[in-house]
Design a protein that fits this description.
The complex is a heterotetramer of chains A (206), B (207), C (289) and D (273). Chain A is mainly α and 206 residues long. Chain A has seven helices and no strands. In chain A, helix 5 crosses helix 6. The longest helix of chain C has 29 residues. Classes of the chains: A mainly alpha (206), B mainly alpha (207), C alpha/beta (289), D alpha/beta (273).
Amino acid sequence: MRWQIPLLIVLLCGVVVAVQYFVPLEELEFIYENALDWIIITGVFAMMLGLWSLFRVSISKVQNKAPGWGYNLITLAGLFGMLFLGYRVESLAEGSLFMKLFRYVYIPIQATMFSLLAFYVASAAYRAFRARTVVSTILLATALIIMLRMIPLGFLSNWNQVLANWILTVPNMAAKRAIAMGVGLGMIATALKIVLGIERAYMGRD
Amino acid sequence: MDLGSALWNGLAVFLTLCIFSILYKDNPFYKLAEHLVVGISAGYFAIILYYNGFLPKVWVPVVKEGKFYYLIPTILGIMMWTRFSRKWSWVSRYPIAAYMGIGMGLAIPLTMYAFILTQLSATMQPVGFANAKLINNLLVAVWVLCGLIYFFFSKEHTGAFGWAAKIGIWTLMVGFGAGFGVTVMGRVSILIERFEFLVNYAKALIG
Amino acid sequence: MRSNLHLKSLIFFILIFLFWESSSFAQEDLSQTWFNPHRANMLIFLIFFFAVIIYFIERAKKGKSLFIRRIAGLDAIEEAVGRATEMGKPVLFISGIEDVDQIQTVAAMIILGNVAKMVAGYDTPLLVPICQPFVVPVAEERVKEGYASAGKPEAYNRDNVRYISSEQFAYAAGVNGIMLRERPAANLMFGSFYAESLVMAETGFSTGAIQVAGTANIHQLPFFVVACDYTVIGEELFATSAYLSKEPKLLGSLKGSDLTKALIMGILALGVVLETLGITHFTRWFYIE
Amino acid sequence: MSFYEKMMTLDRRWVYLCVGIAVAVPLFVPFTVPVSVTPEVRSVYDFVESLKEGDRLFIAIDYDPTVMAELQPMSLTIMRQCFAKGVKLIISALHQNGPGMAEQLVSLVSKEFDKKSGVDYCYLGYKPYPGLTILAMGQNFRIPFPQDYYGVSLDSMPMMQGVRNYDQVKAIIAMEAGWVADSWIRDANGRYKVPVALGVTGVMAADYFQYLPSKQIFGLMGGLKGAAEYESLAKQKERQATGRMKVQTIAHIMVIIFIVIGNVGFFMSKRKK
């Protein structure tokens, strides 16, 4: 019950969905389309686990008066505030408080987190692009050539543009293809081991 | 700008600055924004999942349309909740198994297609020394082969094989350098957008 | 158990061959047929790959030893965990931002269990912030199992495996908070990462942690290579997960992958030669409709 | 610590500060940076320039507000160029979060040129599953879009009379922020043989160069630089990307300066030892 059935479920689901790719029967198409729905549906219920985990960790910090517990109150307020404001359908319409919090709190924070990357690429480049070894010199030189495209250098720019385009279309392309093929084999091998139940560590033990 | 949107946009500006403050060091303002966004996003996605997942995929098919086979994934989903009990938590393996099985089944042919066969057929091009295109094709093919040799695990990287693997890792590094270089532009564009947002707000306030 | 595996492989192949055999009835209206002939090439490839992997797994089980080369990132994991435990500081494990139906996340979960086993013997917490709700139970089980197999089930603390947010940058903000305030001495990042990779890796660097990262997402590899102490590149991620478990049968699949890789290289070389000679039938065979 | 060692171990906050200044100052200080035009951008411009009054062009706006800074200038410039020449536009928006933003853009530009929906342009809007939508439009625009974004039937539009599918448009110019670009290449160009040009984000540009030599795309605009190049060719009054491009240039110079500082410090301190 605890072991055999889950492994059987993995095997069945995996084989049926994979075989569907090769078999254009309508019945299988139906199963395939429903399988996608099933993933979404189980995901909906799994969300509760996430919320519970977040709630439990936050509340235990508040209860224990752990350092900075006040901030965990903010998390809880944000969470329950959104759940409370969003319970009616109308709350999804533009202009509702729910959508305003989304637009003026969530969006700017996530966009700014994203924009921090402009600073981080600079500091990472400064720190790591040193001509220490052959490998790091290659890394440094290519990055420099590509970045120089953005800087007008007169006739040098034209040459650099040609060189940069060559790097992008030849060695860069070769690197990506080699990585992709290796990754593809690794992924399929792992997926096969899971479907056949050879790799089962992810399920834990009793 | 009316008062309402001035205040809401003011909040957005304030939170933007809170996040930027992390660049100096960790501080109460960053902590505030960080904890707020974690709570808000969890609540937001739970609600969105309710309206876009639960209602159309569970409630409407089962209750309104009477498609009872939708109860199967629903029951699987509810089985996830056995995680809350220590004794019954093993039941949650069923939905996890279904979820993974479907995921793996989808991945096998698609990975074969996108990661292997497409790349393979794109690399099989005529080669030669007559013109730049043929030479480039040859270089791509050789470098792809060397890159693949780097990923051999069951053979020691020594001798000629080792040299090929070395050329392979050099090729990968060119790829990484190029990948880094092209990304800088995109990241700076996003920062420009943020700065323009701040400047436009300030301009609007001043009038 | 072994016969069980044989049986399963048998069912698997019978199913596939059934569809393969019936392909001769291919008709124009595909919705009525048992097999899509345009995809036969892929099927042949898959069958070959599967057969090779299963063959080597079986061989490994019989005790034939296999050579596997050293993977630098692998030793680095042990080194990083070792240093964190020496300093009595936490170990942080980040498993990417994708769900558990993604193969990279599964590979990350396998690594997580082995990291838990390493950490269990010492009095240092293993922090696992999580991005997708479905990953929470799997990660909990893996950590619990790792502690149990090291003989320290009581050391497991459920609050250390925590869901943060399903949104990329909200998650990154939360992880940054953990790095800045709980000061882990080792940051292990394995799985499927996107733009948030560098946000976390740079913050981790600023706290002075040893960082080991691995992903198969090609676009993020440059940032890990630049910002982390060790990077596990592409396929090495899956090899690492197989290697860490130290089970011969899992290692057998590496040998199978290698053989298929050799086949692919052969096809590639042959294809290039034939294309150069103006023979295009061979290459055409690899197109998928 | 010697001077050279200090060069190697600058506090990262100095880097942040310099990047911040490099991005902020050009926003206030007026100056221009010359942009060298690449052939792959020029071929898009030349193509649009070669269109005649009454020709139809398909524009795909497949991005969301997060990458507006890079892609909006391309859409804006090309739409203005077309409307000024009297070219009729069919526009789709196949990114889930994009249709509202695209609608604002379409109505802004059409007002400028006093163009009418259904007569001079047709804004189709959004349908889920972009890959399938692109394929279906190859058969007939009316399969995925019986009506346009505003709910007007395509059959009732003067400009859509006799327009069935891609055969009746001169080309597709697609502004892309993700994998939908592959679908335009594979399905629209590969299967239906319609010429395709792409405008993509800076990060994506490297991956799409490979389609130029094989003629699967006839042009490529990558990121802000591509947009600025296009603006410098089109010579319109408003040049958003050119303004942002000078920020890019300064920011890139800053990053390169820091790399140089680090390496000079590294080599000089090594030589001393």
